[in-house]
Amino acid sequence: MVIDLYNGDGIPAHVVSKEFFNDIKACVSENGAVLMNAFYGVKDLSSKKALLKTISDVFGSVIAFEAPLKSDADITQGYLLARNVIGNWSFSITLDDVTEINQKNVIPILQNWVAYNREHEFFNDTETIQDGSNDWVRQANYVDVTYRRILTQIIPWQVLLD
């Protein structure tokens, strides 16, 4: 299952909660996988920590594949992989169906990954996102504003006015 849910230029708060991921897990077959496309902050890690903690609380663990960071980056894109599996799991990825041009972009992302489980030290000061106490809008605000700034730099002004 692939999750790529954006509303304008950000991830809506209701699709990052523990309740949402519990619903997703119930829809995924045993040994099935969930892949989520997400943007989060580099300098302010609160949105990344909260999202990864929430997914790992539901699925037990999550693997984050990220584009290598540029020195001036404020946000990064992650591809988050979780499996509906009890216990340890492994995966393999082949590039047989990826064109040579796309491999130049895909390979660095696939080589840059980190696995997180529920107890990972990265989450020491982080709360799980829940519907009743959902702080995502505040946590992701920095990411959303930064993304808007990037778009205004690369999209012609004529398009933005329409």
Explain what this protein looks like in three dimensions.
The protein has 162 residues and is α+β, with helices and mostly antiparallel strands. The protein has one domain (2-161). Helix content is 37%, strand content 19%. It is built from five helices and five strands. It has helices spanning 18-27, 46-59, 100-111, 136-154, 157-161, and strands at residues 2-3, 33-41, 61-66, 75-83, 113-117. Strands 1-2-4-3-5 form a five-stranded mixed sheet. Helix 1 (18-27) packs across helix 2. It starts with a strand and ends with a helix.
* Order of the strands making up the biggest sheet: 1-2-4-3-5
What share of the residues does DSSP label as strand, in percent?
Answer: 15-25%
**Computed Rg:** 16 Å
> Oligomeric status of the shown chains?
single chain
